[in-house]
Amino acid sequence: MYKLIAAIFVMSTLFAPFSAGAQDRSNHVGIATIDIEAIYLNSIVGKRKIAELEARQAALQAENDQIRDDLIAEEQSLTELRPTLDVEAFRKLAAEFDQRVQGIRRARDAAEQALTSDAQAAPNIFLTEVRDIMLEVMLARGADVIIDRRFVLLGTQDIDITAEVIARVDQEFGSE
To answer: What is the pTM (predicted TM-score) of this model?
Structure first.
């Protein structure tokens, strides 16, 4: 009996909003959904930020490749010098080379980590930059809250404001 009552309660709670169309909506809470990732990936300013990060990544890779090529050439020169140097002199040059390589490796790792951190932070920074636009669209739609679309189990497309926010972001920031 308890299970039947619980099932009726759950069903009435789930389906009550669908049958309440004619009821007073003064306590209505408007909900809008949004796909933050789509806004970042598809807006002009988001695409620009992604392109900047990709350009930085390509430049860093080019620098790394050049440094690697230079170090390989230097190592080859050192190897060719080996027969002309006494053991102690060669050891000293090899140790200096190794120390410099280790320093370069640490610096390059730090540069890569900085770029990774920037890439990870970029979507959150972008979200902060477009927050006011999202708020304006939310209020214009009569919504009280915006929920990430990934967390919506059931709803209509009418509550999704992603395309509208992208259009507004492009309008506001697109030409910068």
So the answer is: 0.71
Q: How far is CA 66 from the centre of its chain?
A: 29
Condensed to tens digits (0 to 9), the pLDDT of residues 45-75 reads: 999 999 999 999 999 999 999 999 999 999 9
d(CA 81, CA 97): 13
Q: Which helix (H) or strand (E) holds 156?
A: none
Distance (Å) of CA 108 to CA 96, 105, 111, 112, 127: 18, 5, 5, 6, 29
CA distances from 115 to 45, 46, 49, 81 (A): 19, 17, 13, 38
Tokens for 13? 């709670």
- Check: CB of residue 130 under 8 Å from CB of residue 48: no
CA nearest to 158, candidates 17, 5, 13, 32? 32
Render pLDDT for 80-91 as a digit per residue (tens, 0 to 9): 999 998 999 999
